[in-house]
Amino acid sequence: MKKIMVVDDNPDIRVTVKHALEYHCSDYEVICVESGNKCYEMLRDNEIPDIIILDIMMPGMTGWMLMDRLKENPLWKHIPVVFLTCRSDDFAKRTGKAIGNDYILKPFGINDLQRRIDRILKNHI
C-alpha cells in the first residue's frame, strides 16, 4: 500500500483527489490535510507518506514554506513532492520543477495525476 498525503486548503480538491485515486488504484491510501501546518504536525508524529501532493498557496504555512521544512529534515527530505497548484507564473513553475518532483496546474485530469504519481513512485523505490 502506497501512502499519499494531499495537502490543500480546498476541501473539494482533497475529496476529489482522495476518492478518485483510491477508486482507480487499490494500492493507494490517501490521507488529506488542510494545511502545511497540519502536514508538518503529522510528519513530526511519524505519519510519513510515500509521496506528498502539495498546494502552494495556503494560509499559514505555504507550500514553499513546507518544502523548506521537508528539505531541512533528513527523515523527510527524500519524500517526493508533486506541486498541484493554480500558480501558473514562470517563477512558480521553474521553482516548483526545480525543488519538487513534478508541477501540475489546476484544473488537472485525475488520470494524468495518477500517471505522474505512478512514475515518481516507480522511480523513487
Question: Can you tell me about this structure?
Answer:
With 125 residues, the protein is α/β, with parallel strands linked by helices. Helices cover 46% and strands 20% of the residues. It is built from five helices and five strands, in the order βαβαβαβαβα. It has helices at 11-24, 36-44, 63-72, 90-99, 110-124; strands at 2-7, 28-33, 51-54, 81-85, 102-105. The chain has a five-stranded parallel beta sheet with strand order 2-1-3-4-5, with helices on both faces. α1 (11-24) links the parallel β1 (2-7) and β2 (28-33).
The count of DSSP E runs of length 2 or more, i.e. the number of strands, is 5
Beta-strand percent range: 15-25%
SSE class: alpha/beta
Spatial order of the strands forming the largest sheet:
2-1-3-4-5
Helix proportion of residues, in percent? Answer: 40-55%
Low-confidence stretches: none
The main sheet comes to:
5 strands, parallel
> What does the average pLDDT come to?
95
Instruction: Give the C-alpha Rg.
Output: 13 Å
What is the approximate shape? globular
The number of helical segments is: 5
Encode the helix/strand succession as letters.
EHEHEHEHEH
Distance between the termini: 13 Å
